[in-house]
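Task: sequence design from structure.
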């Protein structure tokens, strides 16, 4: 229902040969994410015992081919440490050091496929990797490789993460990664392998790419459990993304999920029902978008909150939709400009008929009450309108069924969802 100028805020494989200016009710003005870079810290060793082995065989360690190969140059700073081990073997330890012997922290993937540094390596720098593993016969294998990373590339792809550390979000908050330009379909699997999400308590999840590759969402089969900690790292710095371009930076965030708070709007009754931790806490009349500018049906989440703002739609192609209006308690639901907001001018219509330009109109009292309780990421489901929510028009991860959602992953997703990579 209005527009104002936006404010700027915007993981090689270990080869085991066995295996906004706001636009109210119209317009597309999105706030770009900015988050702190960095990586997760962790031990660089993993212990394992080969099944069916009575213990290590005697004799000198068998040679182990480490990847990157010894003497390799111009390796991306996203390089992971891997090795070739006989079928059925396991890696027990990975050590990566700088030229002066300083250890580099990292983590071994849960599937044992590779060891991932906890932060991007330095450009134009020499490293030494030592990998120790145990073969299926119990023999110890070890190998060492010294390699050098590439110079900083000139051509990079920007990325963003709509998640900030030390903040609390609603149970519907998806992890949202953004890319400019978008990632082509053929390159998405490699990118997705470098996008890590860990949840505490553990909950499986999956990634879903928008068709144009500009955004990818991560969510669980159901809303997050209240109190969950989300630890996210988009480990994309130096990753070859597409067309000779590399990722520009790592982005990471650790955030909390708060209490369960959910809003449901039914066009048939023109009412919103509000639930907190499963209990109904309030019912309020609403007025939705009129037939010429209908509200979207689907599950959205609160993306942004403005206690007071101005909706300006004077550039709308339809003169009938042009106006400048002061708005209180505005909560963005879509990039296209749908909000929940106070609409004292439509109180008489609320609960009876739709008169808005696509927004969810409520009284000032109800708008203030909602605004004081909602979090970014709280879900709202609207049903029964003349328009279906378009994918990508907001953080639309929850507007898809779980089978539909996992179909958008660039990598296979196990039934029930993918566990954490580490």
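Answer:
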């Amino acid at each position: 229902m209005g527009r104002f100028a936006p404010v700027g805020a915007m993981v090689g494989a270990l080869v085991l040969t066995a295996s906004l200016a706001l636009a109210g009710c119209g317009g597309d003005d999105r706030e770009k994410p900015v988050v702190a870079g960095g990586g997760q810290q962790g031990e660089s060793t993993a212990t394992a015992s080969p099944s069916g082995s009575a213990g290590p065989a005697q004799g000198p360690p068998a040679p182990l081919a480490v990847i990157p190969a010894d003497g390799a140059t111009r390796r991306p700073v996203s390089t992971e440490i891997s090795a070739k081990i006989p079928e059925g073997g396991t890696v027990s330890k990975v050590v990566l050091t700088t030229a002066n012997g300083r250890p580099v922290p990292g983590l071994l993937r849960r599937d044992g496929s590779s060891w991932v540094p906890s932060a991007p390596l330095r450009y134009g720098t020499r490293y030494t990797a030592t990998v120790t593993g145990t073969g299926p016969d119990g023999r110890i294998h070890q190998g060492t490789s010294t390699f050098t990373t590439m110079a900083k590339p000139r051509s990079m792809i920007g990325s963003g993460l709509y998640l900030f550390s030390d903040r609390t979000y609603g149970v519907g908050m998806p992890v949202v990664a953004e890319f400019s330009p978008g990632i082509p379909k053929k390159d998405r699997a490699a990118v997705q392998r470098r996008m890590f999400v860990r949840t505490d308590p553990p909950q499986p999840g999956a990634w879903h790419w928008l068709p144009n590759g500009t955004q990818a969402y991560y969510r669980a089969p159901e809303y997050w459990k209240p109190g969950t900690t989300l630890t996210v790292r988009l480990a994309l710095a130096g990753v070859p993304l597409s067309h000779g371009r590399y990722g520009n930076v790592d982005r990471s965030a650790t955030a909390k999920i708060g209490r369960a708070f959910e809003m449901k709007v039914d066009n048939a009754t023109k009412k919103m029902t509000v639930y907190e931790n499963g209990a109904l806490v309030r019912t309020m009349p609403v007025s939705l978008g009129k037939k010429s500018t209908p509200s979207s049906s689907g599950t959205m989440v609160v993306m942004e909150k403005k206690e007071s703002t101005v909706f300006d739609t004077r550039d709308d192609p339809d003169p009938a939709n042009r106006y400048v209006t002061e708005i209180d308690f505005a909560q963005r639901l879509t990039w296209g400009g749908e909000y929940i907001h106070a609409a004292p001018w439509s109180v008489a219509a609320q609960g009876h008929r739709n008169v808005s330009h696509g927004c969810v109109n409520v009284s000032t009292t109800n708008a203030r009450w909602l605004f004081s309780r909602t979090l970014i990421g709280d879900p709202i489901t609207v049903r029964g309108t003349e328009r279906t929510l378009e994918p990508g028009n907001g953080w639309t991860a929850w507007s898809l069924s779980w089978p539909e959602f996992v179909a958008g992953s660039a990598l296979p997703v196990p039934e029930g969802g993918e566990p954490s990579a580490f």
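Residues 1-23, 27-57 have pLDDT under 50 and may be disordered.
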